[in-house]
Amino acid sequence: MVDGILGFVMVLAIVIVSTKLCGLLFRRLHLPQVLGYIIAGVLIGPALFGMGGFSLIGFQSEADSVSCLVMLDEFTLNDGSTYTILDVFSKIGVILIMFCAGLETDLEELKKTGLISMFVAIAGVSVPLVLGLCVSLPFMGSGLVDGSFTTVVQGLFVGTILTATSVAITVSVLKELGKINTRIGTILVSAAIIDDVIGMVVLSVMTGLGTAGGGAQLSGFDWFKAQWWGTLIMIVAFFAVAIVVGIGLHYLFKWMDKKWPSTHRLALFGLATCFVYAFVAEEVFGVADITGAYFAGVIISTVNRVATYADKKADVSSYMIFGPVFFASIGMTMSFDGLSGWLVLFSALFVLAGLVGKIAGCGAVIKLSGGTWREAGIAGVGMMARGEVALIVTTKGIEAGIIPESFMIMTVMLILVSSILTPIFLKLLFADHREPHDDEPSKYRGHEIEVRPPESGDGAQSDQPHSSEVNENGHS
Fold first, then answer.
1. Which residues contact 192 (CB under 8 A, 6 or more apart)?
2. Rounded to the nearest 5°, which phi and psi values hold at 2?
């Protein structure tokens, strides 16, 4: 058995190879590579084969019950929590993923699509959020799913997981069918971007409320942040400070781009901005660190050339090491010990709420705006797929102690089911679908979108899962 520093180097080798192989397999099955990464973590960690007494990678706490090739040492913090070096790499991975997602946010595109995309995104967040709470209510306090699942805030967090949208599969199908630049295609892509922004705000609020109220032994500023009203004040303060500082950073990066165009220092300063925003967001304001990282990316995205260059450089680190480690760690730390019939039932209702919520919410907006039933169905199904942002939100809830670890199984089921059904339904709905000619008035009141000739595309995906695939998968 190997452990220590060289043992972790061996862990990285196993993770990189296994995630790549499983990712390629899932891509051939026309499923998101991130699902392959998670399955790789299940296979190499103690989650599945550990029940038989053996795994490739094990944790120090399981040394007596599991025989493994490489053992990860665990360290204890002052607050009593434990972590491994894998957790550090995983944290960097999730921060980089959200930073790159922010870098690829096109604010100009949001302006072009008008109010209709905003309303589609709002409905795509609010309806699943409410349905998630409704599904959770019968199980609260029953002890059937998990004894700690008792509060309304936890139910709202379950709904928060459902708010994320992954546009990866949708974009692939739209490109394959030559519909990416049509009116409905533009609305879908723009709504998914806005959905991400709203989802990050909702996550910050839910995380803050879920950890608030525990300040009985605290004093001063820490006590203030622990109260629910203090949490809300700090969330508003974060966004106010982030915007003001972001305006200054916009001009700073613009000046740097003129003085040192396409140099490594731009990517380095951008990465440093990401880490500072992530740290300040969580440690100072109590907002989720991934919200800070995403916001940093959005700020830099306003300087196009810097954003493109920084994204290219940050994407290499995320794609090569940190991203695969994050997704594999989800599979490695997943546990099937608490799996029960009630949890399976809850998971099925959770998945159903996630699918119906997007179809009903987003589709209703398109229909009420003057679209056809077919276009309403396209909008709902196009926003239905989930990806890594749903995983990130779930992980955040588990880390904050808001929801139990067993709920990760529900999110994985949601991603798998929605990833399979979305391309099937989209292709059926787009069959014989025709866009209005240029001289026909738009069906959407008060919203004009240029209808350009469809681009040809085979929907091929790149080997890199972020700029072309992870970001799309994750525009959960």
1. 121, 165, 166, 167, 170, 383, 475
2. -110, 135
| 190 pLDDT above the threshold of 80 | no
Q: How many CB atoms lie within 10 A of CB 95?
A: 26
Q: What is the pLDDT of residue 143?
A: 62
Tell me what the pLDDT averaged over the chain comes to: 78
Q: How many CA atoms are closer than 13 Å to the CA of 245, on its beta-carbon side?
A: 15
Could you please report the per-residue DSSP string of 407-452?
Answer: GHHHHHHHHHHHHHHHHHHHHHHHTT--PPPTTSPPSSTT-----P
From residue 303, give the alpha-carbon distance in Å to each of 196, 229, 329: 20, 36, 34
What is the torsional sign of CA 394, 398, 401, 406? positive
Distance CA 86, CA 416 (A): 25
DSSP-derived secondary structure letter, 244: H
- Asked if 217 and 265 count as a contact pair (C-beta separation under 8 A), the reply is no
Q: Are 161 and 394 in contact (CB under 8 A)?
A: yes
Q: Is the CB of residue 47 less than 8 Å from the CB of residue 336?
A: yes
160 vs 381: CA distance, rounded Å: 19
Whole-model pTM above 0.85?
A: no
Q: Which of 127-141, 225-239, 358-372 has the lowest mean pLDDT?
A: 225-239
Q: Select the more confidently predicted residue: 99 or 78.
A: 99
Whether the Cβ atoms of residue 166 and residue 200 lie closer than 8 Å to each other: no
Cα separation of the two ends of the chain: 39
Assess whether pLDDT exceeds 90 at residue 127. yes
Q: Are 1 and 437 in contact (CB under 8 A)?
A: no
Place of tokens 């305006």: 247
Closest alpha carbon to 117 in 444, 356, 419: 444
Higher pLDDT, 29 or 472: 29
The one-letter code for the residue type at 448 is E
